[in-house]
């Protein structure tokens, strides 16, 4: 054992025979002890913030590219936490060379975390293969990035513990408390910066690249500035070169990110991408809509409006529900204005309330020439009032018995963010808003490919005290899907849409005899579609609730 050393004079370089170093080795610091500890804890703070941004980036990207957020978040976070434990154990072998080890870990973490979003998005865009087993290429890449990031994050704390103890020896409990405090506060800042700063201002790819650059600069500066005497000349030179290379890669990628995103969008959606913007809620993208080409609207990569078949979908959604009193209509979702277009075709409509979460989508539907022409400028009609709000929260404060018709034009329930909008509680609130004799219609997804989800919607409406009639409409061609599509390629595979018409008394999906004649529907076709949907019925399904969602991801 090495005995206690006499304290160094104030202001002099501090040294200590570290427990992880060789006997007789010393660490010379260019600053006071207090300043050195502060700098290490500041490094912990920044590294923790960067680490959490990497985690959230992987979760967000996996959800955006593959759907169901619960599944993707569970996979990414569980793999990362497991890897962090392995990384902590592996870091024990680096304690004798803690400064060099920490510098290498931070350079690697900056490269892996910073490039993760670009690499995953590139594989998705140019292969589109997110199906199959977890061992398939893109999914395996997601797991690989989660594993590598977790290993490197897990290695940070043991090495930082070693470094802070070399500055001033203290009991293990005190050192852990100091590091944990800096780590948790940094995680808080990173967790808040990602959704409120990085994502809206920089986007997923650029945000990850900037985070990686900050990680590399702080990690390299901490080691090379504070612990440079603990490194050999060769180690210092290697660490400098490694960090310069990492920053060069990240900087080059940041410069080329616009070209990369354009090329990736063209690979995903074709060369006819006309509008691509990020609202406060989602990514909105338009293709076509000019020179005779059909307009397609994608929300977070999922095809929501296909110009070749959208009339067939929206007519089937709206017109059967309008067979009866329809002076007051509530449209939940429908920010593209297309369901509202069909509502306004009926005479006698006095007021239409539209509750759409994404105000940016509504602005686009009003201002884009092709989309506003497709929706017949319905959102500018004086009878239409648009509220930017969550449909569930809005219904909680909605007046009772206020609407003759409620049209639920919402994303598929298999998308985790939408499951509460297909719950028994949600339909109970909608039922309260219905006037006597009122009707509610809900889109339930693809009947043929997701029958359990569709018939769970039916069972949930029945559990909310409504009588139901199910029907489906087949698309004339691949090109429009409103389900939880994994992207344009798989979106084209869905060729039918299921709907559930509900009321206090047994409804029947028929057209209003005094109403407008839809271009694609007749009473005979609706009756046939109702019989076709009935043949797919899955019996005995329990309703979906807020605490027990029943829809598949």
Automatic annotation (TrEMBL):
UniProt domain PABS: residue ranges: 254-493
The protein's name: Polyamine aminopropyltransferase
Composition-biased stretches (Low complexity): 528-541
Gene name as annotated: speE
Region (Disordered): 1-23, 528-553
The enzyme's E.C. designation: 2.5.1.16
InterPro entries: MFS_trans_sf, PABS, PABS_CS, SAM-dependent_MTases_sf, Spermi_synthase
Any Pfam family hit: Spermine_synth
Family to which this protein belongs: Belongs to the spermidine/spermine synthase family.
The keyword Cell membrane is assigned to this record: yes
Comp. bias intervals (Pro residues): 1-10
Alphabetic keyword roster: Cell membrane, Membrane, Polyamine biosynthesis, Spermidine biosynthesis, Transferase, Transmembrane, Transmembrane helix
Subunit and partners: Homodimer or homotetramer.
Enzyme class: transferase
One annotated GO biological process: spermidine biosynthetic process
TM spans (from-to): 38-64, 70-91, 103-128, 140-160, 181-202, 208-227, 239-257
An example molecular function term from Gene Ontology annotations: spermidine synthase activity
Residues that, per the record, bind spermidine: 314, 336
Taxonomic classification: Bacteria, Bacillati, Actinomycetota, Actinomycetes, Kitasatosporales
Catalytic activity of the protein: S-adenosyl 3-(methylsulfanyl)propylamine + putrescine = S-methyl-5'-thioadenosine + spermidine + H(+)
Residues holding S-methyl-5'-thioadenosine: 282, 356, 390-391
Active site, UniProt feature: 409 (proton acceptor)
């Amino acid at each position: 054992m090495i005995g206690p050393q006499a304290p160094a004079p104030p202001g002099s370089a501090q040294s200590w025979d570290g427990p992880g170093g060789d006997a007789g080795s010393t660490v010379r610091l260019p600053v006071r002890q207090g300043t050195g500890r502060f700098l290490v804890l500041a490094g912990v703070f920044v590294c923790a913030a960067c680490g959490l941004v990497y985690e959230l980036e992987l979760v967000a990207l996996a959800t955006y590219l593959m759907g169901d957020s619960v599944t993707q978040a569970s996979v990414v976070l569980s793999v990362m936490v497991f890897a962090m434990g392995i990384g902590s154990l592996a870091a024990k072998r680096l304690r004798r060379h803690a400064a060099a080890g920490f510098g290498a870990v931070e350079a690697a973490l900056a490269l892996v975390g910073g490039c993760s979003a670009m690499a995953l998005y590139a594989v998705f865009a140019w292969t589109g293969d997110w199906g199959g087993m977890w061992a398939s290429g893109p999914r395996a890449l997601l797991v690989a990035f989660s594993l590598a990031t977790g290993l490197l994050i897990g290695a940070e704390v043991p090495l930082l513990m070693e470094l802070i103890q070399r500055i001033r020896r203290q009991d293990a409990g005190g050192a852990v408390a100091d590091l944990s405090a800096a780590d948790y506060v940094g995680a808080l800042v990173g967790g808040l910066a990602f959704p409120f700063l990085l994502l809206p201002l920089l986007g997923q790819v650029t945000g990850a690249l900037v985070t990686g650059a900050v990680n590399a600069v702080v990690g390299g500066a901490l080691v090379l500035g504070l612990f440079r005497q603990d490194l050999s000349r060769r180690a210092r030179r290697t660490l400098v070169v490694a960090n310069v290379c990492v920053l060069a890669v990240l900087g080059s990628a940041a410069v080329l990110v616009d070209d990369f995103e354009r090329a990736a969008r063209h690979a995903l959606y074709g060369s006819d991408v006309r509008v691509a913007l990020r609202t406060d809620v989602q990514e909105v993208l338009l293709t076509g809509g000019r020179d005779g080409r059909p307009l397609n609207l994608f929300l977070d990569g999922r095809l929501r409006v296909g110009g070749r078949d959208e009339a067939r979908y929206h007519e089937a959604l709206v017109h059967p529900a309008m067979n009866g009193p329809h002076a007051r209509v509530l449209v939940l979702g429908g920010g593209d204005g297309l369901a509202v277009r069909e509502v306004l075709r009926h005479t006698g409509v006095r007021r239409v309330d539209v509750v759409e979460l994404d105000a940016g989508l509504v602005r686009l539907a009003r201002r884009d020439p092709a989309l506003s022409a497709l929706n017949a400028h319905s959102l500018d009609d004086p009878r239409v009032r648009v509220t930017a709000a969550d449909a569930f929260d809005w219904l909680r404060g909605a007046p009772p018995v206020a609407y003759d018709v409620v049209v639920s034009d919402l994303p598929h329930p298999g998308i985790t963010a939408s499951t509460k909008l297909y719950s028994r509680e949600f339909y109970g609130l909608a039922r309260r808003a219905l006037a006597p004799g009122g009707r509610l219609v809900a889109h339930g997804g693809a009947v043929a490919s997701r029958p359990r989800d569709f018939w769970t919607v039916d069972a949930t409406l029945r559990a909310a005290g409504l009588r139901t009639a199910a029907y489906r409409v087949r698309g004339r061609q691949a090109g429009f899907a409103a389900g939880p599509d994994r992207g344009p390629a798989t979106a084209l595979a869905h060729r039918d849409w299921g709907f559930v018409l509900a009321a206090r008394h047994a409804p029947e999906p028929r057209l209003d005899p005094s109403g407008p004649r839809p271009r694609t529907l007749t009473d005979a076709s609706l009756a046939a579609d109702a019989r076709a949907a009935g043949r797919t019925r899955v019996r005995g399904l329990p309703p979906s609730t807020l605490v027990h969602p029943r829809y598949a991801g």
